[in-house]
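Structure (tokenized):
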């Protein structure tokens, strides 16, 4: 009986393949949302191919996003702004340096939920994140700066991945924190960060008081999709370690609509 949720999704568009809006719009629609995409750039293909960098690549674009958020909030005070602060990965910055302070000073304070990776969480907090403890501290720091929900989508620890989630249910009270362990698949995927953020948005809006369930559902969908992607490449005779893989998004629609929870959150 509830009203259909509506998502304004500001991300890159690729003609071929799945990153940015191409990996976020379809799953959000499958989860029952009306989606209004704004394409920040249009590329032929994603950056796993001979390179192209884009994302939100300028301060003026980010300024415009902030204006949109503020305008929409004035009309709808309950607006949820989910921000994936796309700045870099694995120690490499892929946007201009001057964006870091804009994210820190102006974007983080207005975000409802933040979904950085390990490197982005380091840039936003100024801490090194090398352990679970460091990750939890980074989440606490980010809560103090604004968002009540923080998900560090992947931290590399001992060759595996750790997702860390943190929900500050009441301002100033200790947040509820959890982790999900994800065995690392020996292959390189593109579009998975964007897909992860869209699934977290989709599920956390259905379970607003239960970020760990939203994360279990999101990770379980994503891992089923990655296994399918791997198997499909292997059965077509490709070596999955030799190239960046194109995710099998459309083929995984059942895993997106009704994931089987195989990845459980451990609450701290
Ligand atoms: P962003 O791309 O938004 O900056 P990110 O670096 O965390 O964030 P990814 O590295 O794509 O993005 O990871 C997002 C999610 O994708 C992880 O939480 C994990 O579930 C999944 N994932 C990505 N690569 C792998 C892999 N090689 N093996 C297993 N899971 C993976
Ligand atoms: N290529 C392009 C054009 C993108 O816009 C993005 C992310 O926004 C990526 C690649 C990387 O996607 P992901 O971090 O989800 O792997
Ligand atoms: Mg990454
Ligand atoms: Na992320
Ligand atoms: Mg990304």
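Design, position by position:
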């Amino acid at each position: 009986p509830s009203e259909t949720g509506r998502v304004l999704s500001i991300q890159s568009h690729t003609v071929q393949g799945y990153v940015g809006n191409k990996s976020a719009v379809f799953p959000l629609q499958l989860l029952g949302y009306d989606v209004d995409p704004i394409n920040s750039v249009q590329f032929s293909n994603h950056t796993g191919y001979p390179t192209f960098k884009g994302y939100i690549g300028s301060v003026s674009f980010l300024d415009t996003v902030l204006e949109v958020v503020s305008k929409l909030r004035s009309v709808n005070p309950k607006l949820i702004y989910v921000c994936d602060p796309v700045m870099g990965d694995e120690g490499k910055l892929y946007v201009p340096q001057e964006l870091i302070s804009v994210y820190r000073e102006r974007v983080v304070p207005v975000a409802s939920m933040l979904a950085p990776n390990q490197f982005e969480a380091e840039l936003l907090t100024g801490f090194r994140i090398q352990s679970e403890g460091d990750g939890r501290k980074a989440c606490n720091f980010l809560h103090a700066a604004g968002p009540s929900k923080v998900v560090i989508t992947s931290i590399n620890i001992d060759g595996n991945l750790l997702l860390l989630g943190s929900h500050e249910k009441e301002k100033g009270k200790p947040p509820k924190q959890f982790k999900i362990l994800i065995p690392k698949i020996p292959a390189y995927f593109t579009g998975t960060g964007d897909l992860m953020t869209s699934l977290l948005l989709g599920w956390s809006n259905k379970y607003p008081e239960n970020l760990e369930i939203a994360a279990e559902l999101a990770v379980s969908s994503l891992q089923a999709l990655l296994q399918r992607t791997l198997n499909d490449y292997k059965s077509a005779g490709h070596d999955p370690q030799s190239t960046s893989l194109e995710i099998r998004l459309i083929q995984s629609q059942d895993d997106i609509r009704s994931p089987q929870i195989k990845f459980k959150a451990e609450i701290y």
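Reviewer-requested clarification: The chain has a mean pLDDT of 94. Residues 89, 117, 154, 193 surround magnesium ion (ligand 3) (CB under 6 Å).
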